[in-house]
Specification:
Chain B: Its main location: membrane. Chain B: It is a multi-pass membrane protein. The complex is a heterodimer of chains A (439) and B (471). With 439 residues, chain A is mostly helical. Chain A has 17 helices and two strands. Chain A has a two-stranded antiparallel ribbon. In chain A, helix 10 runs antiparallel to helix 11, helix 10 runs antiparallel to helix 15 and helix 13 packs across helix 15. Chain A is globular. Chain B is globular and about 90 Å long. Chain B starts with 15 loop residues before the first helix and ends in a 5-residue tail after the last helix. The chains are: A mainly alpha (439), B mainly alpha (471). Chains A and B meet through helix 3, helix 11, helix 12, helix 15 and helix 17 of A and helix 2, helix 4, helix 5, helix 15 and helix 16 of B.
Chain lengths: 439, 471
């Protein structure tokens, strides 16, 4: 075609391609974006203007209040004096001095000041230990270190003799050894029974004297710290993290129980899950603090924090069981049948085929439950533990900071937001990493 | 199993209980049963021993003893001479009240935020993302405490309204936001059903005149009781004013309200709605028969509004606005800060979760559905109602149920603001006064369990009506 045209010399036939024109101004750049995204119709115009007004109202109050805040003062009255000198009486600025002065308390509660390095070190160890669990690119051998970490962390935070946690950990090693070495010789079921019974006997009768004997030989002692002294975000993190780590396995077991064909196991799991889920956590916490002593042998009395951790774990595990059940139900039946066809027994088929897929489906729900659990740790304030909100009350009760509200709330809220938002982002990362479909 | 040959006449060996899959599950279950029974009997025997050691028994008799404490907010008649059982009932009703209020507002907020988060408007969708993430990632308790502090610290005192340059009432001098709570107008009737009965020589004491929602936020009763000139919006006041009117013959009619009025109004409203639905059903039948849909909107509006207005006129309804008297507001409805803070915090917090559910539900509907509906010639509104919403609801309803359940259970955080819900009365003061932790907590747990089961069964019935009908 072009040859024909090039040979002809008609005036109205163009011989070269026209250069592309720039799009009109209304279709490019910022103008187009603003037009499409903010002012595309009368409703959008109203919404945009409304939002702009709202943002302006909030920011015009919040930004000067926060940015001009006073960081260096010993009490609220002093804060107000400084404010009056700087900005004139009655101006509305934050008094961040309360955070500057009391942040160690908000973080650690009444933990002895000279021992702050211990919880800090414990949390560093925790993050090192959790890294191989969260990110599979790290070497797998590091997982052995992760298993030892809880005992070291316990020792660092509560103090006492190192041999106590070591003696307890030895029980787990004992169970694992029986399972691994005696299992092939005596059969699976007896091995499982033995690996449960022998460590229990060991913990009840051997562990205590053993720890005592060892510590009398080599006393590796740290100063004891009472649970009552632990508070603030440290308390929230201890309860939250232990609850998260303990409730996941329990929740998976409960979910399997609920799916089970065995009548009694099935009904017991359902009853447990529904009763736990039907009653608010706060009622369970009051049960833990008021009633647990009724159910235990006379004279037993154990740490309130431990009771709370147990209750929070049971509570979260019921929710996780439901989430995991959703994942199990979402798997096609063919997966179960294929596992049976391969001749795998129940536990092998669950471990190798069903659970990896079901848990992958359940990840968003599980992480949401964890976020909920972490937020729910604030409820322990009602049974007398000093979580961040409880500490904010006690700070407000002191004469220096009587009447201070917003600064503490903002600080506590921001800290919780960072933790929970971070967990949510990690769940998105995990979902993306585990996605196997083509896209 | 059918292809199996008959097993040889083999004697039963004990090892089969472990190694034979036919018997193994039975073995496991029997072992589990025995362990469970042992654990339970251990717990019960411990409890019995502990109770005996403390000299307590297991007895619910305390529910019929006088409670001896006051509750500042109640939906039914209650005073400190009432029984612990009645105090529990007051608390239970308060829990249900805040749960219903919270679920309604949370649904509204959640739907709006969820739809707006999908909006093309960049600014609005980002704003809604901030709302959702902000509320989801901060503990509910902090929000409750924060809103309560906001309500009590950042609002003026009632007497500040007296000053000329002080704060003024909102919405045409009818709503006052103070640090003691929010005062809003309520409806009162000059020809109240309850009032007519009171005008008779012998007013019935036992009549549940205050079972309605109005005038029962005890605070107004306390505040009006002190001042001499009562506007008489509470039932107690109505009783006394009725007596007064009877004594003085043809006195001035004091407007009042009773549960019967509200029952009548609600009844008329529901009858109107039922009529409107009937009209719409008839219209659909006609449309299916003839292809033309008669206009129904005016008839429906008339069916609902005209009887309602008629009843209001017959009862002589008028707005009772709160008026500043003494150091506080008189008249109207007093919504306490505790209720408002709890209600707002629960609604905003749960609304953020519902927004995500709604967004997910709408995103789950394939865009092809909208395009197919347009290709069939349906208008956007009809497309939404007949094509998109019915499908989105299937995805939305089940998680919505669990959010309602969460809100109801979270209402037990009322403890943070001193709202007298079931946990504060039955599980709080009653336990402290009688020392019956075991019975009190048992009843409290049972109440929440039953409430959860009732809500989830109702919502499941609704879910069954909207879910995909498969043949």
């Amino acid at each position: 075609m072009s040859e024909v045209h090039s040979e002809s010399s008609l005036a109205y036939v163009r011989e070269t391609m026209v250069d592309q024109k720039e799009p009109p101004l209304s279709q490019t750049g910022a103008y187009r974006w603003i037009h499409e995204n903010l002012f595309s119709g009368w409703l959008n115009v109203i919404l945009t203007l409304g939002s702009l007004w709202f943002i302006w109202v909030v920011l015009s109050h919040l930004v000067p209040w926060a940015a001009l805040g006073i960081w260096d003062a010993g009490s609220l009255a002093q804060c107000r004096e400084i404010r009056n000198d700087l900005y004139g009486a009655g101006s509305d600025v934050a008094c961040w001095a309360v955070i500057a002065e009391r942040w160690p308390q908000l973080l650690f509660g009444f933990y002895p000041r000279d021992l702050y390095w211990r919880p800090v070190l414990a949390f560093v160890i925790f993050f090192i230990a959790i890294a191989p669990v969260l990110f599979s690119s790290l070497p797998r051998k590091a997982l052995f270190g992760s298993m030892a970490a809880p005992f070291v962390i316990y020792w660092l935070i509560w103090g006492g003799s190192l041999w106590g946690p070591v003696a307890v950990a030895a029980g787990f090693v004992l169970g694992w050894a029986i399972m691994n070495y005696a299992g092939p010789k005596v059969g699976v079921l007896p091995a499982i029974l033995a690996s449960i019974v022998v460590p229990l006997l060991y913990w009840f009768f051997v562990a205590g004297p053993l720890a005592g004997a060892l510590s009398s030989v080599v006393p590796l002692r740290l100063t004891n710290v009472e649970s009552n002294d632990i508070g603030g975000f440290m308390l929230a993190l201890i309860i939250g993290i232990s609850g998260i780590l303990l409730s996941l396995p329990l929740g998976v077991v409960l979910a399997l129980g609920r799916q089970s064909d065995m009548f009694i196991i099935n009904k017991c799991s359902i009853a447990f899950i529904e009763i736990i889920r039907g009653v608010p956590l706060i009622v369970w916490l009051f049960t833990a603090s008021l009633l647990l002593n009724y159910f235990l042998p006379p004279g037993t009395n154990f740490d309130l924090m431990l009771r709370v951790i147990i209750m929070v774990t049971l509570f979260a595990s019921a929710y996780i069981a439901e989430v995991v059940r959703g994942g199990l139900a979402a798997l096609p039946k063919g997966q179960y049948e294929a596992a049976d066809a391969l001749g795998l027994d129940y536990w092998k088929s669950m471990r190798l085929i069903i659970l990896p897929q079901a848990l992958k489906i359940a990840i968003p729900g599980i992480v949401n439950t964890f976020i909920g659990l972490f937020k729910d740790t604030t409820l322990v304030v009602f049974i007398g533990l000093l979580d961040p909100i409880g500490l904010s009350n006690s700070i407000r009760a002191s004469t220096e900071w009587n009447g201070i509200y917003w600064e503490l709330f903002v600080f506590i809220g921001l800290c919780f937001f960072l933790f929970c938002f971070g967990m949510g982002r990690y769940s998105l990362y995990l979902e993306k990493k585990l996605r196997r479909e083509h896209n | 199993m059918a292809t199996m040959t008959d097993p040889p006449e083999q004697s039963f060996r004990l090892s089969q209980l472990i190694y034979d899959t036919r018997y193994r599950s039975l073995t496991i279950q029997v072992v589990a049963m025995i362990l469970l029974a042992l654990a339970l009997s251990w717990l019960v025997s411990n409890t019995v021993q502990n109770l005996a050691a403390l000299g307590k028994d297991f007895d619910f008799g305390f529910l019929w003893q006088p409670s001896g404490y006051d509750i500042n907010q109640r939906l039914v008649e209650y005073d400190s001479q009432s029984t612990h059982g009645r105090a529990a009932l007051v608390g239970i009703l308060n829990t249900i009240l805040v749960a219903i209020l919270g679920c309604s507002l949370a649904t509204v907020l959640g739907v709006i935020a969820g739809v707006l988060r999908l909006s093309n408007n960049w600014l609005v969708s980002r704003l809604m993302a901030v709302y959702v993430e902000g509320f989801r990632n901060v503990p509910l308790l902090l929000w409750i405490v924060l809103i309560f502090a906001l309500m009590t610290e950042a609002t003026p005192q009632p007497r500040a309204f007296r000053a000329d340059d002080g704060p003024s009432m909102l919405m045409g001098e009818s709503v006052a936001v103070t640090n003691r709570g929010v005062y809003i107008p309520n409806l009162v009737f000059t020809r109240s059903l309850g009032g007519n009965e009171v005008a008779a020589p012998e007013p019935e004491e036992e009549e549940p005149t205050s079972s309605g929602l109005s005038g029962t936020y005890g605070g107004s009763r306390i505040s009006t009781g002190g001042s001499g000139v009562s506007t008489g919006q509470s039932s107690d006041a109505s009783d006394s004013s009725g007596d007064g009117a009877a004594a003085s013959g043809e006195g001035e009619v004091v407007p009042t309200s009773s549960g019967w009025d509200w029952l009548l109004i609600l009844g008329v409203l529901f009858a109107g709605i039922a009529g409107a639905r009937y009209v719409s059903k008839k219209a659909t039948e006609k449309q299916e028969a003839t292809g033309k849909r008669p206009t129904t909107a005016p008839i429906q509006a008339g069916l609902i509004l005209i009887p309602l207005i008629a009843v209001l006129v017959i009862l002589g309804a008028q707005l009772n606005k709160p008026v500043l008297g003494g150091f506080n507001f008189d008249g109207g409805l007093h919504l306490r800060n505790s209720l408002i803070a709890l209600w707002l915090a629960l609604s905003l917090y749960t609304g953020a979760f519902i927004a995500e559910i709604v967004r997910g539900g709408i995103l789950a509907i394939n865009k092809g559905q909208t395009e197919a509906a347009y290709a069939l010639g349906l208008r956007p509104g009809t497309t939404m109602n007949l094509v998109i919403l019915p499908q989105a609801l299937r995805v939305i309803i089940p998680p919505l149920i669990s959010q309602y359940l969460n809100l109801t259970k979270n209402s037990s955080l009322a403890i943070a603001v001193g709202y007298m819900d079931a946990r504060s009365t039955l599980g709080g003061i009653t336990i402290n006064q009688t020392g019956r932790e075991l019975e009190g907590m048992l009843l409290l747990g049972l109440f929440y369990l039953v409430l959860s089961l009732v809500i989830s069964s109702f919502m499941n019935i609704y879910n069954a009506t909207v879910k995909l009908k498969e043949r």
